[in-house]
Design goal:
It is a single chain. The chain is of the alpha+beta class. The protein has one domain: Gcn5-related N-acetyltransferase (GNAT) (Aminopeptidase, 3-Layer(aba) Sandwich). About 25% of the residues lie in helices and about 20% in strands. Strand 3 (about 65-70) and strand 4 (about 75-85) form a beta hairpin. Helix 1 (about 20-30) crosses helix 2 (about 40-50). The longest helix is centred in the C-terminal third of the chain and has 12 residues, at about 95-105.
Length: about 140
């Protein structure tokens, strides 16, 4: 997939119409988040349309190298559903730029997200704190 590895060549955008659902679905599958059945182009099209914010990062060749989905009431609460960045593009400031884009669009709200332990440092560098006592529950779709 991604061929150019320069942060300066990467464009971060919150234009949902610029995101090809098939590209987004392929990114989820490629990064091991799930199967093509769960992350099909049709399901991703619905997902992008239903999210309040979808942020993309594209390299100089126009390839999707990062993607985030966000729900917000734009008044009190925002939830980052997920953020994916192609491994070759990680640790180059792209995730930080994506977070800054999200934060600028939901200014004045508390922003919540859940992540794996390996990403705690990234969120802390972005100014987030681990919320004490919060436990995540999930009921998987069938």
């Amino acid at each position: 997939m991604a061929s150019i590895k320069k942060n300066s060549d990467v464009i971060v955008s919150a234009d949902k119409n610029s995101i090809d659902p098939a590209d987004a679905a392929a990114l989820y599958v490629e990064l091991g988040w799930g199967t093509g059945k769960k992350y099909s182009a049709a399901r991703m099209k619905r997902s992008i349309a239903s999210c309040d914010i979808a942020v993309s990062a594209r390299n100089g060749a126009g390839e999707l190298v990062g993607f985030a989905r966000v729900l917000s009431d734009f008044a009190t609460t925002t939830k980052i559903l997920d953020m994916l960045i192609v491994p070759e593009y990680q640790r180059q400031g792209i995730g930080t730029r994506m977070m800054q884009k999200i934060e600028s669009l939901v200014a004045g709200t508390d922003i919540f997200g859940e992540t794996e332990r390996k990403n705690f440092g990234f969120l802390e560098r972005c100014g987030y704190e681990k919320r004490k006592g919060l436990m995540v529950f999930v009921k998987k779709s069938k």
